[in-house]
TrEMBL record:
Domain of life: Archaea
SUPFAM superfamilies the record matches: AbrB/MazE/MraZ-like
Record domain SpoVT-AbrB: where: 4-45
Transmembrane segments: none
InterPro entries, per the entry: SpoVT-AbrB_dom, SpoVT-AbrB_sf
Protein name as catalogued: SpoVT-AbrB domain-containing protein
Length: 76
């Protein structure tokens, strides 16, 4: 874990090793007990392709499964 401090203008400088690993752009997410920095990929579409590269179903198949699951869940 690394500690970072705001400067007098409210800016936060992340350590070089964090920037090198996660990049330069982040979403700041407010949580009930603090904040979370979520890295934004330089190429979000490529990041999604990488994340879901092992999924063998089409978007239509996944959507239909989700719809069927929601209908089943609602009927309980």
């Amino acid at each position: 874990m690394t500690q970072a401090t705001l400067d007098d203008r409210g800016r936060l400088t992340l350590p070089k090793e964090v920037r090198e690993e996660y990049g330069e752009t982040y979403y700041v997410v407010s949580l009930h007990d603090g904040i979370k920095l979520v890295p934004v990929a330089d190429d979000p579409l490529a990041a999604l392709r990488d994340e879901f590269s092992d999924v063998e179903k089409t978007a239509s198949e996944l959507r239909e499964e989700a719809r069927a699951g929601a209908i089943e869940e609602a009927g309980r």
